[in-house]
Amino acid sequence: FRNLLYQDASYFDNPAHAPGKLITRLASDAPNIKAVVDARMLQVIYALSAIVACIVIAFIYCWQVAILGTSLILLLAFVMIGLAYKISIMNIEQIKNDEAGRIAIEIIENVKTIQLLTRCDMFFDHYETASKQQKRSELKKGMIEAINYSITQSFMYFMMCFTYAVGIRVIYQGDKSSDDTFKGIIAMMLGAVAVMNSAQYFPEFVKAKTAAGMLFNIIYRKPRTGDLMEGDRPEIRGNILFENVKFSYPQRPLQPIMK
User: Fold this and answer.
1) Does 99 score more than 80 pLDDT?
2) Which one of 1, 89, 145, 152 is least enclosed by Cβ atoms within 10 Å?
3) CA 184 – CA 159 distance, rounded (Å)
4) What one-character DSSP code corresponds to residue 28?
């Protein structure tokens, strides 16, 4: 918010930085980031630690099962990264096209004028149209999140199927004892459980990543006019004369403001 106060006038003249959109970002981005910096973050850290420990234990007792289980976990990781990238793109597009919040804020700020002009129904229709667009975008994201949830929550059963298949073959050929083989299988099964427990926070982490990117873009943006706290402050004496000074906003270069 401090950085917004120091931005140049052309920043607010851009339709993408309308007051309603900026207020929506300030109101929603910070809570979205806060949503994952709590017990959910600890749960994910615990799950990652458990996965690493289970893989190490599996390699100690039965490397054949460990290689298969690790490959399945890596495959799942690539799928989740792809889905996260897809949802991140959709989140960014949704933020750029977020008209519902802007319309609601600007309507409420000017509600007296709208009532006097008897245009309540018209502005309500605008808000309803923008809300429906947001709803369609959320439904598309919901489908992708449902795919991720179904894959991760059934991952343990895939792990069980493949590791038992390889384990039975290893025991049959006599490469490992049944005791060591089952220890490796159980280790990979526990790793799959850790994946299932942490994957339920997938939507919150993706949303937080997008929100953090948008928030830090605002925090680190430098005004085009420079930092007003930097520079020299000379002592000026005498007359000051301005000649051939012109100014117009970047969004309306053909409409001079000062001449």
Assistant:
1) no
2) 1
3) 12
4) H
